[in-house]
Amino acid sequence: MQPVKMTYHLGLFSLAMLITGAIDNIRNLPSTALFGSSLVFYFILAAITFLIPNALISAELAGSKHGGGVYRWSSAALGQSMGFFTIWLQWINTMVWYPTILSFIAGTAIFFIDPALAQNKVYLISIILVVFWSLTLLSMRGIHISARFASICGLIGMVIPMVLIALCGVIWLVSGHTSQVSLHWSALIPSLKNTDSWSSLTSITAAFLGIELASVHANHLKNPGHDYPKALLISVTLILITMILGSLTIAMILPTAQINLVDGVVQAFDNFLAVYHARFLLPVLVVMILLGSLGGMVSWIISPAKGLLQAGQDGFLPAWLSRENKHGSPGNLLLLQAVLVSLVCLAFLLMPSVNGSYWLLTDLSTQLYLFMYVIMLISGIKLKWQNNIGGTGFQINGGRVGTLIVGLFGLLGCVIGIAIGFKPPSGIDVGSFWHYETVFSLGILLFVLPVSFFYWYARLKRKELIIKP
User: Fold this and answer.
1) Per-residue pLDDT tens for 18-57?
2) CA 226 and chain centroid, separation
3) Domains of the chain by range and CATH?
């Protein structure tokens, strides 16, 4: 019996919250706050050379005749094999990323019981497994359920806490409290010769990953060409404002040495509310933050899997991984995803500290994703230059030259991000330089090598179809 296909429409607000919730994650604030007031410069630089170019290129491609998703775009420009490699990079990087946000959820949830447990690897791994498997089961109910859940959680648990933490920073300054970082104009522009400060681009770029993710849902909008660019504009604006102000607030309230990457947000709220004798509000904020993080997780769990499913149905994956369940969800892929995430959690045992493990996974996920963006941007430029975009959706101003300029800015950001990703930050305990480099490089190889097996599988299947009478 064939599965029943579900027909549904996403509204403009739902899609905007889906994008915002997937990217504008409050858990990213502590890692960007580590770099003090210079983070403003790097946020703006990353927005110009990464976030905005990728948002514009993906918006143009989403409204093209090639359909939604990086697999379709890169296949049309560079061939199906490169298309599969692109969607593999988008999907596999999330296997590395999930444990970081789940560790944030675990650290936030335990804050009132014993904050020290946020640095306990066994506790973190246990919570990660329970939460991820639960969200996987929810996602198997279909995107219409998960999108609704993500939209509600994104508003309550992401946008509102982000605005609140930004307001905390304003109140902190206006009321005359000492800032832990200088906000003078001279401090906002860092010395570009200081290579350590460039490490902040890794955490900021990691915070911007996924801007193209919701493109697979563009065809579920009533008016994709009109509504998708609007949703992107709303999301990019919200993301930049809330992340810059939120990161600065943590940097102002907490000394750098006291910022924990796992529970730094709750630390900042706790310190702020303690000064104003309002710690009774902290449990409410913690629940809201947990809801927002869970909503963001749902956005990421199903969207890359839906993209990989497209490649699977074109013959790159075994049949059992290429099926949708009765809810239109890639059920078997989601289960495989949960198994892989469970194995990746063991990375917390490879670094001498929780902060070190958190940074390793963030850095590794970012590198894999940046390689994907390089291919996506090249695909967008090539399709536009060959007049092969088509469709009636959003178009970048300036025609082919406009798309080329935007794409080159995006490629510049990706190349810078890839180059600095191999240098660990000096302020986080990741062990010796060569220990980190070895684990990091082997991690990239480990997650890329399976592509060769699936290439072999696809060629074998095609030969069987040719030989079969």
Assistant:
1) 777 667 667 778 878 877 788 888 888 888 888 889 888 9
2) 25
3) 12-459 (1.20.1740.10)
